[in-house]
């Protein structure tokens, strides 16, 4: 039997789901290894126990980029920018951080002023105004070297149209610093608007060294055991081969959380449900997402941990609340939960790995909601010490141990509910019209509490809830993209020209992929507009046909047409592999009787709480549907 | 309306309406042609119920905030038919200043008007004496451009081509205007579709109840905050540095009284109407008052017309803040609005309410125009510091929050280059908390053209607070030579115009 394997690394557990050729699922859970995430991945593969030749693919979701952005522990970046416009990162787009809070500041840029090097060159809209001389390139390289960078980002004005200066400068820097990577803005985001392009390139530089080390290290480790190199999920739900992912760090900012929403969407479709809020609760954090019409909501770009990245991403709101979140009493005597987490090491007190501070998991144990003697990953539960830790907090609060444990869970729920509210209410979506998909190790524990807070009546606890993100990764098709600048008037393009564009892009996108489905889009606008519409095109039509389709689309989207020339600015193609077969049906399961709350059900890789007033029914696809009367 | 709404329902509905308004903004931004709209978002979109009450605004621009309801009321006074699309810019009939073309659609559903959608956008030219229609030195409205009372541009949704032709025949850049106006129509239509869908989803009676509840809720929050401030009063005075015709300062005075959850503003003592174009209409004064009040509220308060209910404004009979035909007003909307904001914050400070030190207090209006093109933008500067922290640098303060024009977009669209764009370091006032820095922007023109500057805080610095130093004054230059704060010049190819924008005031002794 061969497998497609998904591995999702969380703050506490590393989850694995292997989907066999027949569509059946095998799940594993091991402890994460924060110091080197690849160790946990290797342990999970070892726990699967399949020989290397049986693993056709490993799809990976990682939080390496998210964590380093959150903790601001990225590389020491030196930015080279056009002289006269070197303050771009600080100037942003001029708007204030809050319309009405006049004291609010934007987060500080990833590169401070003293590490920005001004480059005496200038490309203008139509001409090179000032040539970048070799002498200047050498001078800049020397200045850059003196700043002792981990990585260098080159972002020069108008590089989306003409990147010769960026490339010339990058070459000079590489010559001076042969062991330092150089990122050019036009390679990361070849689009007009200097701030967005520069900020995204800087995020790439900030994250890349660590991501590259990680992916290389992980690939080597897997290879040593006979496994293939991993594919890595992007923030937008795409899937990149390891070699590409190592130089696309900025596109991995939400790699881990995106896998969860993609997995939830797949299960939701299997359950024939449409609109859902998703909540993935792990040991360290909780990720809230939104699925409309069976598809994860994808946004064109935005900030991750306050870092602007103009690349598409699945909508996810992350809060620091999970099983490992530490409960404490603040200076004002109020009970607080998180944002500190005991993580995997030392972990909750109950894990018996040296943790001494009470966590959400310990509170669940006090409340009798974690009945199993042993969690997956081989963690034995130390109930006595867990209870003692919560009791000592209760003493400080002058409350009973049970009451304190309930409060800890309720406070964690409130933080997570706020994230769910942000992804729904703030987008005008009524959570009460949605089903809550609750997964991750902690999702099924908290589902009822969260649904009650938001007035939601239905909860889907998916099959393999504890490893759903990994399952989403395992079944996600491979997806690679290629793009090119075109800058032509649409109607001037002949059929052979359009055909050549399509074929060339398709070949570049699919690379070594076999049997990929190619879809191509032209980025089209009326001359003078600042934004394009994506117009699908085939290899058998001319530019006029593309223009006609654009006019129709434009009319549909914006309600008007203009009598102006129509430009094809760029084109891109995606090569998408076959989605992996997934067989979720479990025989005889519907015969099970509904379970009325309050009740606790131990699932294979998670524990489900059915609260008072809720009824749980087993689903034909596995998993449970909980409903409130 | 007896329907009751829990907090979550109200919040969902409020956000659903705000989403429609934001979607309108997206259609406008993506469909329009001029950089001032598509890049800088110098535009606002809003949704009104069938009674013409503003339920939500996609808020980028505070100066549009309290002023757009006037546009809808002006349209309603003309007895619109369902589906009619109106266009207006008359400051005396629902508008602010002439470049702000406001479109209003009477949303039709089964032959009835069920609401209004409106988009106000600053067009880079509407004719008049000066390319870009932000003239310096205008003394009557007709010099500032084409003056449009609310006209039926598209009766029942069908465009009146001859009317559009008339408009386009009177502006310098008809092709760009046509595209931007089409995008405005598209945005209004998108809003109408969204509003109809929401009504269908929620049911019209329930939605009407929700609108009442939403306006009441915002009003309650505003009054609660005012009650918390208590019964206080404060006075303040400030000056504009000139009216565009002369350098004689224009005086502003206010007496602020907060009492029983209401806010009373009496502008007695403010200068009479002036010859130049810093006159402004009351709707703009109202917008400034609402902005200042809004900044005292928490972030989660929905932005709708309920906020204006506790605000009461009195202006003397002949007042620069109550422009009447034939007053010129182009600079009033952008500069007088800023000064009124400074004035109101100063009055709150006098009343003992903690507010930040003064920010740059100007929008730094820059307009270029040559054969076949016009370009307009405004520039950020320093925000004042407060007890809570230093002032942010190089942002719009007060009544504007437009974005910058990306250098790359600007240079692809106009015969101009930006040769310098940076933070003006050290321009924020010193203090325990430092004021935010201004910025420097230098333009080189590549062909003969005209530039018009309308700026402030060039001779009177933004003041520090509680012993903090003043921010640096702004400076305008032509090829290194200082220029007046408000001026119009003919430029030759290669000339450079530089603006150094003011810094914000510092807070507390350094």
Report on this structure.
The complex is a heterodimer of chains A (629) and B (510). With 629 residues, chain A is of the alpha+beta class. Among the domains of chain A are: 74-210, Rossmann fold (3-Layer(aba) Sandwich), CATH 3.40.50; 325-410, no CATH class; 479-576, 2-Layer Sandwich (Dna Ligase, domain 1), CATH 3.30.1490. In chain A, the strands form ten sheets. In chain A, strands 13, 14, 15, 20, 25, 26, 31, 34 and 35 form a nine-stranded mixed sheet that branches. The longest helix of chain A has 31 residues, at 194-224. Chain A is globular and about 75 Å long. Chain B has 510 residues and is an alpha+beta fold. Chain B folds into two domains: 7-216, no CATH class; 356-510, no CATH class. In chain B, 29% of the residues lie in helices and 24% in strands. In chain B, strands 2-1-5-4-3-6 form a six-stranded antiparallel sheet, sandwiched between helices. In chain B, strands 13-14-19-16-17 form a five-stranded antiparallel sheet, with helices on one face. In chain B, a hairpin with a 2-residue loop joins strand 4 (100-109) and strand 5. The longest helix of chain B has 29 residues, at 174-202. The model of chain B has no long low-confidence stretch (mean pLDDT 95). At the A-B interface, helix 3 and helix 16 of A face helix 1, helix 6, helix 8, helix 10 and strand 13 of B.
